[in-house]
Design a protein that fits this description.
Chain lengths: 116, 116
């Protein structure tokens, strides 16, 4: 495992680079986090992520679908209902988020915007 | 640990969010990856990361310094030499990158631009 971190250069197929390219967009990690416990409707994800715009959320979900991490299911109800769920590959990202959670506990809290 | 992934909402102090805010900029993860084996000069980092612009690299290194993950040391040689090293906190991000490396092995290779 450690050899993955000590390669001399970062090639096209570097696995850290591939994961970074999936996760580095703003909000992406947090959208995956919302889906880890199970499938959710668009509106549920939006409510959970304070500050995300509908356009950004739609764009990120499309991207996650395109890279095979998220499945979208549309139900032919009136009005139609759309549900999002992690694929098996998407579920595998859990370990990354757990490591991020553990590391984040060591980071200072951001300044509270309501207090400044 | 698992409760870190199952909170109902993502609050200001959510540890995954704090880590995401540090890592989500393009190139950030790969710069940290270059510094994991030990300190490096600016030019060494730039050579290792094909395609990064000098301006982007300088900006990311300043950011990583500002959040306490990287130390910068300037040596009064002629010409001056600048070295970057991970702080103790920065070293702790190793587990996140290891999880990213493991996950990335499951992702398909990106299309080779030289072949398209």
């Amino acid at each position: 495992m450690d050899n993955l971190l000590s390669q001399a250069d970062c090639h096209v197929s570097c696995p850290i680079k591939k994961t970074a390219e999936v996760l580095e967009g703003k909000w992406t990690t947090l959208i995956i986090r919302e889906l880890l416990p199970g499938k959710k409707r668009y509106s549920q994800i939006q409510r959970a992520l304070e500050g995300i715009s509908p356009r950004m959320l739609a764009s990120r979900l499309r991207f996650l679908e395109s890279v095979g991490l998220v499945n979208r299911t549309v139900y032919a109800t009136v009005p139609p209902m759309t549900e999002y769920a992690l694929t098996a590959l998407g579920q595998d990202i859990r370990d990354v988020l757990q490591a991020m959670a553990k590391f984040g506990e060591k980071l200072p809290d951001p300044p509270d915007p309501k207090r400044s």
